[in-house]
Amino acid sequence: MRQRLNGLSPRARVIADIAAVAGDRCTYELLRVASGHSSETLTRAVRGLVDRFIMAEVREAGAERVAFRHALTREAVYDRLLEPERRGLHRSVGFALLETAGGSDPAVAADLGRHFHAARAWPETLVYAGRAGMAATGSHATAESLIHFRRALDAAIALGHTERGAFHRRCGEAYARLGAFDQARQQWEAALAVARGREDAGAEIDALDDLARLHGSRDYGVAERLAREALAHAIEIGDDRRRGVALNRLGNVLTNLGRFGEGRAMHEAASRFFVALGDERGAAAAVDLTAMAWYLAGDVRLARAAFGEAAARFAALDDVEGMASARTSRGLYLAVIDGPCTTEAPPGDYRSDAAEGLRLCREIGWRSGEIYALVALATVALGAGEYGLAGEQADAAHRLAAEDGHAQWTVIALFVLGLRLADLCDDRGALARFEEGQEIAIRLGSVQWRERLRAWIAWCRVRIGDSAAALETLHGITPADGFGPQSIGQRRACMAMAELRLGAGDPEQAVLWVGRLLDGAAGPRPAEAMLLRGRILGMTRARIEADAALLEARRLAAAVGPRPVLWRVAAARSLLWAGNDRAVAAGEADIAREELSRLAATIPMEAEREAFRAAPEVRRWLAAAGRRRTADAAAPGGLTRRERAVAGAVATGLANKEIARVMGIADKTVEMHVGTCLGKLGFSSRSQLAVWAVEQGIPRTDG
Predict the structure, then answer these.
(1) Helix 527-539 crosses helix 543-560 at what angle (to 10 degrees)?
(2) Could you tell me which of 53, 332, 333, 409 has the fewest CB atoms within 10 Å of its CB?
(3) How many domains, in total, are found in the chain?
(4) Residue 611 belongs to domain spanning
(5) Does 247 lie in the same domain as 226?
(6) Which helix (H) or strand (E) holds 527?
(7) What angle do CA 111, 117, 123 make, to 5 degrees?
(8) In 627-666, which ranges are continuous DSSP H helix?
(9) What gap in Å lies between CA 391 and CA 397, rounded to an integer?
(10) Are 491 and 341 in contact (CB under 8 A)?
């Protein structure tokens, strides 16, 4: 190839050099203008290149152009050019392209920006790279827009142009959408410095808002400080539009700090400014953020309706990112499982929204939004009892969030993974996930996530049998006396307190705690809370009321989920009717076995599937029909004397360590006996074991 190139005439070599720089847009007209040759001279030079098999003539859509036969040949020609030669040729090609093709077409503008940037022709770079960047942004080509905006920024810096700050902002936006936190922060901090240096108050507020939004994924303390500074400046200069934006940003930060009422008030104030200004985009954002404030406060039904309204408004504006966010949030089933919170829509409806959100996020290359949508889909799968899919999607979200260093999404992914393990009766595994998420939430400064994680940590500790630690964890996150729960975390805290009081042999207090989620509620209630009420009432011997609650829990779980509640309802009804209606008890046991078999079949990993099947509260219902019940053995429940003694001690409210000390055995031995008792009796919690022991009249000193 070097020999072929060395044998070219000077004019042919010039044409080859121009063609190597021009690339795909190497038309005869461009070569003629860039080289300054006449048509006849150009044709002879091209003929020499074609005869030497260096280039070929290509006809496309009625147009003729010249191209290298091999990409490597073009690279070889380009690489042999000295840097000053390259700059000169890029300049010539840029102006030739501008003369022959104009600069209005976005694709041509992109090439012009590239050539003028390589030529260091800064005024032209600023115009055409900026134009190409805006076109790429409009078509949601984020990575491409970043390339163009970086070129425009280089030009603005070289020229000392007033647009420098604007291009810093645009580069920051592209980096943020691609999940590059540090690069986005650097660009937006540079934009802030430029704005302050020029005493441009409006640009300063914009940069502060950008940084507040960015830090909302890492540190809510920093985000609040920046948002308050932006709001103060907007008020100072009397800019109502920027004031509305700052109110929305600060309101969202306060919502994540657990100050839901303040957050909603700020969004409502922002909405009034935007409506007065006729700013539809700002008004849509206010609706979207208000919906999130309702959601985190536990009102999922109201939030879901508001997210739908926000999505429709964004769609009317062709705001794809806004649509993606609102549809994903509308598809977030998490609070239904977490609180539990009330919903009127089944998991399938949530899945449609979350799937559309994921599609839109991927369409525009919005990585943070993609992680959020994967989390939403994982919660839907969990609500539908699809454990394999839930794990796959939550794992993918966790991996991407960890790669990006996105603390908020790392927490929520860990949380969903913990919920999945809790549903699989792996309480220790779930506890580890929740505690890992809690450490990150503390660094993040997210009060609402710390509260939700603490509630689930307490829940796991109740189930493990560490009542003292559970009570300590719940301190400060339960609703004040006389008030119902004001957040998702407080709802789960009420559930944990109900289980805790039940385990301590105090069903009267337990039913009051679960009643905080149910009493006075309008419309449907959470299936899991109705299940817990049914279990508690069953242990107070109010069988008819208990059965009514369990049947309502079944109806709700079948209609709107979560699906895994169904097997627990069947198990509870089987135990409830075991001594009074064996036919009902046997039928419910069959239902429990069928539901558990279906759930187990969704777990792809054999070890995890078998661990689920072997969990004490599960294995009894999966046993063969003839071996399902052990209560017919000679001793009550088929328990040994030592197991009965442990059950009696549990009934008094003692923790495992206290039982071990009283009975003179190891902590691990007590834990083993408790697990065996739960397995033999088909119970899912210590509270059930405690009530059973009282009903059987088993004293603590038995054995």
Answers:
(1) 160
(2) 53
(3) 4
(4) 452-627
(5) yes
(6) helix 527-539
(7) 105
(8) 641-651, 656-663
(9) 10
(10) yes
